[in-house]
Protein backbone atom coordinates (compact mmCIF):
# COMPACT_ATOMS: atom_id res chain seq x y z
CA UNK A 1 0.00 0.00 0.00
CA UNK A 2 2.76 2.40 0.99
CA UNK A 3 4.64 1.47 -2.18
CA UNK A 4 1.59 2.47 -4.21
CA UNK A 5 1.33 5.87 -2.54
CA UNK A 6 5.03 6.45 -3.12
CA UNK A 7 4.69 5.59 -6.80
CA UNK A 8 1.64 7.83 -7.14
CA UNK A 9 3.51 10.82 -5.76
CA UNK A 10 6.51 9.99 -7.95
CA UNK A 11 4.25 9.91 -11.00
CA UNK A 12 3.01 13.42 -10.44
CA UNK A 13 6.45 14.97 -10.08
CA UNK A 14 7.25 17.37 -12.91
CA UNK A 15 9.40 16.80 -15.98
CA UNK A 16 12.25 19.32 -16.20
CA UNK A 17 13.03 20.81 -19.61
CA UNK A 18 15.75 23.31 -20.50
CA UNK A 19 17.19 25.21 -23.43
CA UNK A 20 19.42 28.22 -24.01
CA UNK A 21 16.37 30.38 -24.71
CA UNK A 22 12.99 30.09 -26.40
CA UNK A 23 13.74 27.30 -28.87
CA UNK A 24 13.16 24.45 -26.43
CA UNK A 25 9.57 25.58 -26.10
CA UNK A 26 8.89 23.77 -29.40
CA UNK A 27 9.97 20.59 -27.58
CA UNK A 28 7.92 21.46 -24.49
CA UNK A 29 4.93 22.09 -26.73
CA UNK A 30 5.34 18.65 -28.36
CA UNK A 31 5.65 16.99 -24.92
CA UNK A 32 2.61 18.84 -23.63
CA UNK A 33 0.58 17.67 -26.64
CA UNK A 34 1.76 14.05 -26.38
CA UNK A 35 1.40 13.95 -22.58
CA UNK A 36 -1.21 16.52 -21.50
CA UNK A 37 -1.34 15.24 -17.89
CA UNK A 38 2.35 15.88 -17.20
CA UNK A 39 3.49 18.73 -14.96
CA UNK A 40 6.30 20.56 -16.78
CA UNK A 41 9.02 22.98 -15.61
CA UNK A 42 10.94 24.89 -18.27
CA UNK A 43 14.21 26.79 -17.84
CA UNK A 44 15.45 29.14 -20.60
CA UNK A 45 19.04 30.31 -20.09
CA UNK A 46 18.43 33.70 -21.67
CA UNK A 47 21.47 35.25 -19.95
CA UNK A 48 23.74 33.01 -22.04
CA UNK A 49 21.66 32.55 -25.20
CA UNK A 50 22.72 31.46 -27.83
CA UNK A 51 24.64 28.28 -26.92
CA UNK A 52 25.38 27.50 -30.59
CA UNK A 53 28.47 29.69 -30.69
CA UNK A 54 29.76 28.91 -27.16
CA UNK A 55 32.46 26.40 -26.22
CA UNK A 56 31.87 22.82 -25.05
CA UNK A 57 33.15 23.60 -21.53
CA UNK A 58 30.92 26.64 -21.16
CA UNK A 59 27.80 24.75 -22.32
CA UNK A 60 28.53 21.86 -19.91
CA UNK A 61 28.87 24.32 -17.03
CA UNK A 62 25.63 26.15 -17.89
CA UNK A 63 23.79 22.82 -18.26
CA UNK A 64 24.98 21.49 -14.91
CA UNK A 65 23.87 24.67 -13.13
CA UNK A 66 20.41 24.45 -14.70
CA UNK A 67 20.08 20.73 -13.96
CA UNK A 68 20.90 21.42 -10.29
CA UNK A 69 18.12 24.05 -10.18
CA UNK A 70 15.58 21.70 -11.78
CA UNK A 71 16.53 18.86 -9.42
CA UNK A 72 15.80 21.15 -6.49
CA UNK A 73 12.31 21.40 -8.01
CA UNK A 74 12.00 17.65 -7.61
CA UNK A 75 11.77 16.54 -11.25
CA UNK A 76 11.30 12.88 -12.22
CA UNK A 77 12.97 13.19 -15.63
CA UNK A 78 15.16 15.78 -17.42
CA UNK A 79 14.82 16.75 -21.08
CA UNK A 80 17.67 18.69 -22.70
CA UNK A 81 15.53 20.56 -25.21
CA UNK A 82 18.52 22.16 -26.90
CA UNK A 83 20.62 20.58 -29.62
CA UNK A 84 23.91 22.21 -28.63
CA UNK A 85 23.48 21.25 -24.96
CA UNK A 86 22.42 17.72 -25.97
CA UNK A 87 25.55 17.47 -28.12
CA UNK A 88 27.91 18.73 -25.44
CA UNK A 89 26.36 17.91 -22.05
CA UNK A 90 24.16 14.78 -22.35
CA UNK A 91 26.89 12.32 -21.34
CA UNK A 92 28.03 14.46 -18.40
CA UNK A 93 24.46 14.92 -17.13
CA UNK A 94 23.56 11.23 -17.57
CA UNK A 95 26.58 10.32 -15.46
CA UNK A 96 25.98 12.79 -12.66
CA UNK A 97 22.19 12.99 -12.24
CA UNK A 98 19.90 10.70 -10.20
CA UNK A 99 17.07 10.93 -12.78
CA UNK A 100 16.81 9.81 -16.41
CA UNK A 101 18.07 12.35 -18.97
CA UNK A 102 16.81 12.57 -22.56
CA UNK A 103 18.39 14.81 -25.22
CA UNK A 104 16.96 15.78 -28.61
CA UNK A 105 19.69 14.26 -30.77
CA UNK A 106 19.20 10.50 -30.38
CA UNK A 107 15.42 10.68 -30.93
CA UNK A 108 15.96 12.85 -34.05
CA UNK A 109 18.63 10.51 -35.41
CA UNK A 110 16.44 7.42 -34.79
CA UNK A 111 13.48 9.03 -36.57
CA UNK A 112 15.67 9.92 -39.56
CA UNK A 113 17.05 6.37 -39.82
CA UNK A 114 13.51 4.98 -39.65
CA UNK A 115 12.40 7.35 -42.42
CA UNK A 116 15.22 7.22 -44.96
CA UNK A 117 14.87 4.92 -47.96
CA UNK A 118 17.98 5.84 -49.95
CA UNK A 119 20.10 6.02 -46.76
CA UNK A 120 21.12 9.63 -47.33
CA UNK A 121 20.32 11.89 -44.38
CA UNK A 122 20.88 15.64 -44.14
CA UNK A 123 21.39 17.41 -40.80
CA UNK A 124 21.02 21.15 -40.27
CA UNK A 125 21.92 22.84 -36.97
CA UNK A 126 23.96 25.53 -35.22
CA UNK A 127 27.74 25.78 -35.50
CA UNK A 128 28.12 23.97 -32.14
CA UNK A 129 25.79 21.07 -33.00
CA UNK A 130 27.36 20.52 -36.41
CA UNK A 131 30.97 20.76 -35.23
CA UNK A 132 30.23 18.27 -32.44
CA UNK A 133 29.04 15.83 -35.17
CA UNK A 134 26.60 14.40 -32.62
CA UNK A 135 23.81 13.59 -35.07
CA UNK A 136 26.34 11.96 -37.38
CA UNK A 137 27.64 9.77 -34.54
CA UNK A 138 24.09 8.95 -33.35
CA UNK A 139 23.09 7.82 -36.86
CA UNK A 140 26.30 5.82 -37.34
CA UNK A 141 25.63 3.93 -34.11
CA UNK A 142 22.40 2.45 -35.45
CA UNK A 143 22.71 2.47 -39.25
CA UNK A 144 24.97 2.60 -42.27
CA UNK A 145 23.19 5.62 -43.77
CA UNK A 146 25.36 8.43 -45.13
CA UNK A 147 25.07 11.73 -43.27
CA UNK A 148 25.62 15.22 -44.68
CA UNK A 149 25.79 18.18 -42.28
CA UNK A 150 25.29 21.91 -42.76
CA UNK A 151 25.61 24.64 -40.11
CA UNK A 152 22.97 27.39 -40.55
CA UNK A 153 24.00 30.15 -38.10
CA UNK A 154 21.59 32.72 -39.58
CA UNK A 155 18.39 30.71 -39.04
CA UNK A 156 18.14 31.47 -35.30
CA UNK A 157 18.50 35.27 -35.67
CA UNK A 158 16.09 35.25 -38.64
CA UNK A 159 13.46 33.40 -36.58
CA UNK A 160 14.05 35.69 -33.58
CA UNK A 161 13.65 38.74 -35.86
CA UNK A 162 10.29 37.23 -36.87
CA UNK A 163 11.35 36.84 -40.52
CA UNK A 164 9.91 33.32 -40.84
CA UNK A 165 9.03 33.95 -44.48
CA UNK A 166 9.85 36.38 -47.27
CA UNK A 167 12.43 36.60 -50.03
CA UNK A 168 15.49 37.19 -47.84
CA UNK A 169 14.87 34.18 -45.60
CA UNK A 170 14.00 32.12 -48.69
CA UNK A 171 17.41 33.06 -50.18
CA UNK A 172 19.25 32.18 -46.95
CA UNK A 173 17.41 28.82 -46.78
CA UNK A 174 18.37 28.11 -50.39
CA UNK A 175 22.04 28.98 -49.76
CA UNK A 176 22.27 26.60 -46.80
CA UNK A 177 20.21 23.71 -48.24
CA UNK A 178 21.66 23.59 -51.78
CA UNK A 179 24.83 21.61 -50.85
CA UNK A 180 22.68 19.02 -49.01
CA UNK A 181 20.13 18.72 -51.83
CA UNK A 182 22.97 18.11 -54.30
CA UNK A 183 23.81 15.02 -52.24
CA UNK A 184 20.32 13.67 -52.97
CA UNK A 185 19.20 13.33 -49.32
CA UNK A 186 15.66 12.03 -48.72
CA UNK A 187 15.45 12.99 -44.99
CA UNK A 188 16.39 16.31 -43.41
CA UNK A 189 16.74 16.55 -39.62
CA UNK A 190 15.86 19.97 -38.17
CA UNK A 191 18.71 19.85 -35.67
CA UNK A 192 17.84 23.05 -33.82
CA UNK A 193 14.72 23.79 -31.83
CA UNK A 194 14.19 27.11 -33.66
CA UNK A 195 13.92 25.49 -37.06
CA UNK A 196 10.33 24.18 -36.82
CA UNK A 197 9.32 27.84 -37.24
CA UNK A 198 10.94 27.77 -40.71
CA UNK A 199 9.20 24.51 -41.68
CA UNK A 200 7.20 26.01 -44.57
CA UNK A 201 10.22 27.55 -46.30
CA UNK A 202 12.38 24.49 -45.60
CA UNK A 203 9.74 22.14 -47.06
CA UNK A 204 9.28 24.35 -50.11
CA UNK A 205 13.02 24.51 -50.80
CA UNK A 206 13.74 20.84 -50.02
CA UNK A 207 10.94 19.66 -52.31
CA UNK A 208 8.48 16.81 -51.91
CA UNK A 209 11.12 14.08 -52.15
CA UNK A 210 12.69 15.13 -48.86
CA UNK A 211 10.94 14.49 -45.50
CA UNK A 212 11.58 16.95 -42.70
CA UNK A 213 12.35 15.26 -39.37
CA UNK A 214 11.40 17.40 -36.40
CA UNK A 215 13.40 16.43 -33.30
CA UNK A 216 10.74 17.95 -31.03
CA UNK A 217 8.07 15.37 -31.94
CA UNK A 218 10.61 12.52 -31.88
CA UNK A 219 11.79 13.60 -28.43
CA UNK A 220 8.23 13.81 -27.06
CA UNK A 221 7.66 10.21 -28.18
CA UNK A 222 10.89 9.12 -26.47
CA UNK A 223 9.81 10.82 -23.22
CA UNK A 224 6.45 9.01 -23.38
CA UNK A 225 8.13 5.62 -23.89
CA UNK A 226 10.61 6.21 -21.04
CA UNK A 227 7.84 7.12 -18.59
CA UNK A 228 5.63 4.21 -19.71
CA UNK A 229 8.51 1.80 -19.22
CA UNK A 230 9.09 3.01 -15.66
CA UNK A 231 5.36 3.25 -14.94
CA UNK A 232 5.82 6.94 -14.20
CA UNK A 233 3.15 8.52 -16.42
CA UNK A 234 1.30 11.24 -14.54
CA UNK A 235 -2.33 10.72 -13.56
CA UNK A 236 -2.87 14.36 -12.58
CA UNK A 237 -6.17 15.84 -13.65
CA UNK A 238 -4.76 19.25 -14.41
CA UNK A 239 -1.14 19.74 -15.38
CA UNK A 240 0.91 22.73 -14.14
CA UNK A 241 3.30 24.43 -16.56
CA UNK A 242 6.05 26.59 -15.03
CA UNK A 243 8.56 28.83 -16.78
CA UNK A 244 11.90 30.17 -15.50
CA UNK A 245 14.60 32.21 -17.24
CA UNK A 246 18.01 33.68 -16.33
CA UNK A 247 17.26 37.07 -17.97
CA UNK A 248 14.48 39.14 -19.54
CA UNK A 249 11.24 37.45 -18.37
CA UNK A 250 9.09 40.03 -20.19
CA UNK A 251 10.74 39.37 -23.54
CA UNK A 252 10.42 35.63 -22.91
CA UNK A 253 6.67 35.96 -22.40
CA UNK A 254 6.32 37.88 -25.64
CA UNK A 255 8.56 35.87 -27.98
CA UNK A 256 8.17 32.56 -26.13
CA UNK A 257 4.46 32.45 -26.86
CA UNK A 258 5.25 32.13 -30.61
CA UNK A 259 7.43 29.08 -29.98
CA UNK A 260 5.05 27.50 -27.49
CA UNK A 261 2.02 28.23 -29.72
CA UNK A 262 0.11 29.24 -26.57
CA UNK A 263 0.15 32.34 -24.40
CA UNK A 264 2.74 32.26 -21.59
CA UNK A 265 1.44 34.29 -18.66
CA UNK A 266 3.97 33.93 -15.87
CA UNK A 267 7.75 33.74 -16.10
CA UNK A 268 10.13 33.95 -13.15
CA UNK A 269 13.73 35.15 -13.34
CA UNK A 270 16.31 33.06 -11.47
CA UNK A 271 19.97 33.99 -10.98
CA UNK A 272 21.77 30.62 -11.04
CA UNK A 273 25.14 32.12 -10.10
CA UNK A 274 23.73 33.13 -6.72
CA UNK A 275 22.41 29.64 -5.96
CA UNK B 1 61.14 64.51 -8.53
CA UNK B 2 59.09 61.81 -6.87
CA UNK B 3 55.94 63.36 -8.33
CA UNK B 4 57.47 63.07 -11.81
CA UNK B 5 58.31 59.40 -11.34
CA UNK B 6 54.80 58.74 -10.11
CA UNK B 7 53.30 60.47 -13.17
CA UNK B 8 55.64 58.59 -15.53
CA UNK B 9 54.52 55.23 -14.13
CA UNK B 10 50.88 56.36 -14.25
CA UNK B 11 51.30 57.29 -17.92
CA UNK B 12 52.42 53.83 -18.90
CA UNK B 13 49.54 52.02 -17.22
CA UNK B 14 47.29 50.31 -19.73
CA UNK B 15 43.92 51.43 -21.08
CA UNK B 16 41.19 48.85 -20.40
CA UNK B 17 38.72 48.13 -23.21
CA UNK B 18 35.76 45.76 -23.15
CA UNK B 19 32.94 44.48 -25.31
CA UNK B 20 30.53 41.55 -25.37
CA UNK B 21 32.68 39.80 -27.98
CA UNK B 22 34.76 40.68 -31.02
CA UNK B 23 33.06 43.93 -32.06
CA UNK B 24 34.96 46.17 -29.65
CA UNK B 25 38.16 45.21 -31.45
CA UNK B 26 37.21 47.77 -34.13
CA UNK B 27 37.38 50.38 -31.33
CA UNK B 28 40.63 48.94 -29.98
CA UNK B 29 42.05 49.05 -33.51
CA UNK B 30 41.10 52.73 -33.87
CA UNK B 31 42.66 53.53 -30.45
CA UNK B 32 45.82 51.63 -31.33
CA UNK B 33 46.11 53.58 -34.60
CA UNK B 34 45.46 56.98 -32.97
CA UNK B 35 47.68 56.21 -29.94
CA UNK B 36 50.31 53.62 -30.94
CA UNK B 37 52.33 54.06 -27.72
CA UNK B 38 49.44 53.04 -25.42
CA UNK B 39 49.39 49.68 -23.62
CA UNK B 40 45.96 48.15 -24.16
CA UNK B 41 44.05 45.36 -22.38
CA UNK B 42 40.95 43.99 -24.08
CA UNK B 43 38.21 41.85 -22.52
CA UNK B 44 35.62 40.13 -24.75
CA UNK B 45 32.70 38.66 -22.78
CA UNK B 46 32.23 35.76 -25.18
CA UNK B 47 30.36 33.67 -22.57
CA UNK B 48 27.50 36.18 -22.67
CA UNK B 49 27.73 37.48 -26.26
CA UNK B 50 25.57 39.08 -27.66
CA UNK B 51 24.58 41.84 -25.21
CA UNK B 52 22.17 43.40 -27.73
CA UNK B 53 19.29 41.12 -26.76
CA UNK B 54 19.99 40.98 -22.98
CA UNK B 55 18.28 43.03 -20.26
CA UNK B 56 19.61 46.27 -18.77
CA UNK B 57 20.23 44.63 -15.37
CA UNK B 58 22.15 41.73 -16.87
CA UNK B 59 24.36 44.02 -18.97
CA UNK B 60 25.14 46.23 -15.94
CA UNK B 61 26.14 43.16 -13.91
CA UNK B 62 28.38 41.78 -16.69
CA UNK B 63 29.99 45.22 -17.15
CA UNK B 64 30.74 45.66 -13.45
CA UNK B 65 32.38 42.23 -13.25
CA UNK B 66 34.59 43.02 -16.25
CA UNK B 67 35.49 46.50 -14.94
CA UNK B 68 36.58 44.91 -11.63
CA UNK B 69 38.86 42.51 -13.52
CA UNK B 70 40.39 45.32 -15.60
CA UNK B 71 40.95 47.48 -12.51
CA UNK B 72 42.91 44.62 -10.96
CA UNK B 73 45.12 44.95 -14.03
CA UNK B 74 45.83 48.53 -12.98
CA UNK B 75 44.27 50.43 -15.88
CA UNK B 76 44.41 54.25 -16.11
CA UNK B 77 41.23 54.63 -18.18
CA UNK B 78 38.30 52.40 -19.16
CA UNK B 79 36.70 52.31 -22.60
CA UNK B 80 33.29 50.62 -22.98
CA UNK B 81 33.76 49.51 -26.58
CA UNK B 82 30.23 48.16 -26.86
CA UNK B 83 27.16 50.18 -27.72
CA UNK B 84 24.71 48.17 -25.61
CA UNK B 85 26.98 48.29 -22.54
CA UNK B 86 27.61 52.02 -23.10
CA UNK B 87 23.86 52.55 -23.29
CA UNK B 88 23.09 50.58 -20.14
CA UNK B 89 26.18 50.69 -17.90
CA UNK B 90 28.11 53.94 -18.54
CA UNK B 91 26.44 55.94 -15.74
CA UNK B 92 26.80 53.10 -13.22
CA UNK B 93 30.49 52.58 -14.04
CA UNK B 94 31.27 56.31 -14.04
CA UNK B 95 29.78 56.53 -10.53
CA UNK B 96 31.54 53.52 -9.07
CA UNK B 97 35.01 53.47 -10.68
CA UNK B 98 38.14 55.38 -9.58
CA UNK B 99 39.28 55.93 -13.23
CA UNK B 100 37.75 57.87 -16.13
CA UNK B 101 35.23 55.90 -18.20
CA UNK B 102 34.49 56.58 -21.89
CA UNK B 103 31.66 54.93 -23.83
CA UNK B 104 31.12 54.85 -27.59
CA UNK B 105 27.79 56.66 -27.68
CA UNK B 106 28.63 60.25 -26.73
CA UNK B 107 31.61 60.44 -29.14
CA UNK B 108 29.46 59.02 -31.97
CA UNK B 109 26.61 61.42 -31.21
CA UNK B 110 29.00 64.41 -31.11
CA UNK B 111 30.57 63.44 -34.44
CA UNK B 112 27.12 63.13 -36.04
CA UNK B 113 26.00 66.54 -34.74
CA UNK B 114 29.23 68.07 -36.07
CA UNK B 115 28.66 66.49 -39.47
CA UNK B 116 24.95 67.02 -40.15
CA UNK B 117 23.88 69.97 -42.29
CA UNK B 118 20.14 69.30 -42.61
CA UNK B 119 19.91 68.28 -38.93
CA UNK B 120 18.54 64.85 -39.72
CA UNK B 121 20.56 62.03 -38.18
CA UNK B 122 19.98 58.28 -38.55
CA UNK B 123 21.08 55.78 -35.91
CA UNK B 124 21.43 52.05 -36.52
CA UNK B 125 22.21 49.60 -33.71
CA UNK B 126 21.16 46.47 -31.84
CA UNK B 127 17.75 46.04 -30.23
CA UNK B 128 19.24 46.99 -26.83
CA UNK B 129 20.99 50.14 -28.03
CA UNK B 130 17.95 51.36 -29.97
CA UNK B 131 15.41 50.64 -27.23
CA UNK B 132 17.61 52.47 -24.70
CA UNK B 133 17.41 55.54 -27.02
CA UNK B 134 20.88 56.51 -25.78
CA UNK B 135 22.10 58.02 -29.06
CA UNK B 136 18.88 59.97 -29.33
CA UNK B 137 19.32 61.35 -25.80
CA UNK B 138 23.03 62.11 -26.41
CA UNK B 139 22.20 64.06 -29.59
CA UNK B 140 19.31 65.92 -27.91
CA UNK B 141 21.64 67.06 -25.11
CA UNK B 142 23.84 69.01 -27.52
CA UNK B 143 21.67 69.85 -30.54
CA UNK B 144 18.20 70.28 -31.95
CA UNK B 145 18.79 67.80 -34.77
CA UNK B 146 16.06 65.24 -35.47
CA UNK B 147 17.02 61.63 -34.83
CA UNK B 148 15.61 58.51 -36.52
CA UNK B 149 16.49 55.09 -35.12
CA UNK B 150 16.44 51.61 -36.61
CA UNK B 151 17.33 48.33 -34.86
CA UNK B 152 19.21 45.93 -37.18
CA UNK B 153 19.39 42.61 -35.26
CA UNK B 154 20.55 40.62 -38.31
CA UNK B 155 23.71 42.65 -39.00
CA UNK B 156 25.77 41.07 -36.18
CA UNK B 157 25.03 37.44 -37.17
CA UNK B 158 25.62 38.29 -40.86
CA UNK B 159 29.04 39.78 -40.05
CA UNK B 160 29.90 36.83 -37.78
CA UNK B 161 28.90 34.42 -40.58
CA UNK B 162 31.39 36.32 -42.80
CA UNK B 163 28.64 37.47 -45.17
CA UNK B 164 29.93 41.07 -45.36
CA UNK B 165 28.82 41.33 -48.98
CA UNK B 166 26.58 39.57 -51.48
CA UNK B 167 22.96 39.84 -52.51
CA UNK B 168 21.38 38.56 -49.29
CA UNK B 169 23.23 41.00 -47.05
CA UNK B 170 22.55 43.75 -49.58
CA UNK B 171 18.81 42.99 -49.33
CA UNK B 172 18.90 42.99 -45.50
CA UNK B 173 20.78 46.32 -45.51
CA UNK B 174 18.18 47.79 -47.88
CA UNK B 175 15.28 46.55 -45.70
CA UNK B 176 16.72 48.17 -42.57
CA UNK B 177 17.95 51.45 -44.16
CA UNK B 178 14.93 52.29 -46.34
CA UNK B 179 12.79 53.79 -43.51
CA UNK B 180 15.74 56.02 -42.48
CA UNK B 181 16.53 57.12 -46.04
CA UNK B 182 12.89 58.09 -46.52
CA UNK B 183 13.39 60.57 -43.66
CA UNK B 184 16.11 62.26 -45.74
CA UNK B 185 18.95 61.83 -43.19
CA UNK B 186 22.40 63.18 -44.16
CA UNK B 187 24.38 61.40 -41.39
CA UNK B 188 24.16 57.77 -40.36
CA UNK B 189 25.74 56.63 -37.08
CA UNK B 190 27.01 53.03 -37.09
CA UNK B 191 25.82 52.41 -33.55
CA UNK B 192 27.30 48.92 -33.17
CA UNK B 193 30.94 47.95 -33.26
CA UNK B 194 30.27 45.18 -35.79
CA UNK B 195 28.88 47.55 -38.40
CA UNK B 196 32.18 48.99 -39.72
CA UNK B 197 32.63 45.59 -41.41
CA UNK B 198 29.49 46.35 -43.47
CA UNK B 199 30.70 49.86 -44.42
CA UNK B 200 30.89 49.18 -48.17
CA UNK B 201 27.31 47.90 -48.44
CA UNK B 202 25.98 50.57 -46.07
CA UNK B 203 27.67 53.35 -48.08
CA UNK B 204 26.39 51.95 -51.37
CA UNK B 205 22.81 51.70 -50.09
CA UNK B 206 22.81 55.04 -48.24
CA UNK B 207 24.18 56.89 -51.29
CA UNK B 208 26.67 59.72 -51.52
CA UNK B 209 24.45 62.28 -49.77
CA UNK B 210 24.69 60.39 -46.48
CA UNK B 211 27.91 60.35 -44.42
CA UNK B 212 28.64 57.27 -42.32
CA UNK B 213 29.73 58.10 -38.77
CA UNK B 214 31.91 55.41 -37.26
CA UNK B 215 31.79 55.52 -33.44
CA UNK B 216 35.14 53.68 -33.23
CA UNK B 217 37.15 56.56 -34.73
CA UNK B 218 35.18 59.16 -32.76
CA UNK B 219 35.82 57.24 -29.52
CA UNK B 220 39.56 56.94 -30.21
CA UNK B 221 39.72 60.73 -30.61
CA UNK B 222 37.86 61.21 -27.31
CA UNK B 223 40.31 58.87 -25.52
CA UNK B 224 43.24 60.87 -26.93
CA UNK B 225 41.74 64.17 -25.74
CA UNK B 226 41.00 62.80 -22.26
CA UNK B 227 44.56 61.52 -21.80
CA UNK B 228 46.09 64.74 -23.17
CA UNK B 229 44.01 66.82 -20.78
CA UNK B 230 45.20 64.77 -17.78
CA UNK B 231 48.78 64.60 -19.11
CA UNK B 232 48.52 60.82 -19.11
CA UNK B 233 49.61 59.95 -22.67
CA UNK B 234 51.99 57.00 -22.66
CA UNK B 235 55.63 57.49 -23.55
CA UNK B 236 56.34 53.77 -23.83
CA UNK B 237 58.57 52.80 -26.74
CA UNK B 238 56.75 49.58 -27.43
CA UNK B 239 53.12 49.10 -26.55
CA UNK B 240 51.79 45.79 -25.17
CA UNK B 241 48.41 44.52 -26.38
CA UNK B 242 46.68 41.92 -24.22
CA UNK B 243 43.49 39.97 -24.94
CA UNK B 244 41.17 38.19 -22.49
CA UNK B 245 37.84 36.42 -23.05
CA UNK B 246 35.27 34.58 -20.92
CA UNK B 247 34.88 31.71 -23.44
CA UNK B 248 36.35 30.23 -26.63
CA UNK B 249 39.84 31.79 -26.88
CA UNK B 250 40.64 29.86 -30.08
CA UNK B 251 37.56 31.16 -31.90
CA UNK B 252 38.38 34.68 -30.68
CA UNK B 253 41.84 34.47 -32.21
CA UNK B 254 40.40 33.37 -35.54
CA UNK B 255 37.43 35.71 -35.89
CA UNK B 256 38.89 38.54 -33.80
CA UNK B 257 41.73 39.04 -36.26
CA UNK B 258 39.19 40.16 -38.90
CA UNK B 259 37.82 42.84 -36.58
CA UNK B 260 41.24 43.94 -35.32
CA UNK B 261 42.68 43.97 -38.87
CA UNK B 262 45.83 42.36 -37.43
CA UNK B 263 46.68 38.85 -36.32
CA UNK B 264 45.87 38.11 -32.66
CA UNK B 265 48.33 35.55 -31.34
CA UNK B 266 47.60 35.12 -27.66
CA UNK B 267 44.22 35.11 -25.91
CA UNK B 268 43.65 34.07 -22.30
CA UNK B 269 40.37 32.73 -20.92
CA UNK B 270 39.22 34.17 -17.58
CA UNK B 271 36.25 32.92 -15.54
CA UNK B 272 34.88 36.10 -13.93
CA UNK B 273 32.36 34.23 -11.79
CA UNK B 274 35.21 32.58 -9.89
CA UNK B 275 36.96 35.88 -9.15
Topology (elements, then pairings):
Two copies of one chain form a homodimer.
Chain A: H1 2-11, E1 15-19, H2 25-34, E2 40-44, H3 56-72, E3 77-80, H4 83-96, E4 100-103, H5 105-115, E5 120-125, H6 127-132, H7 134-142, E6 146-151, H8 155-160, H9 167-181, E7 187-191, H10 199-206, E8 211-214, H11 215-229, E9 241-245, H12 249-260, E10 268-269
Parallel strand pairs in A: 1-2, 1-3, 2-9, 3-4, 5-6, 5-7, 7-8, 9-10
Characterization of the model:
2 copies of one chain form a homodimer. The first copy, chain A, has 275 residues and is an alpha/beta fold. The first copy, chain A, has 2 domains: 2-103 and 218-274, Rossmann fold (3-Layer(aba) Sandwich); 106-215, Rossmann fold (3-Layer(aba) Sandwich), CATH 3.40.50.1860. Helices cover 48% and strands 17% of the residues of chain A. Chain A has 12 helices and 10 strands. Chain A is globular. Chain A binds chain B through residues 46-49, 53-55, 57-58, 153-154, 156-158, 160-161, 163, 167-168, 171-172, 175, 247-248, 251, 273, and chain B through 46-49, 53-55, 57-58, 153-154, 156-158, 160-161, 163, 167-168, 171-172, 175, 247-248, 251, 273.
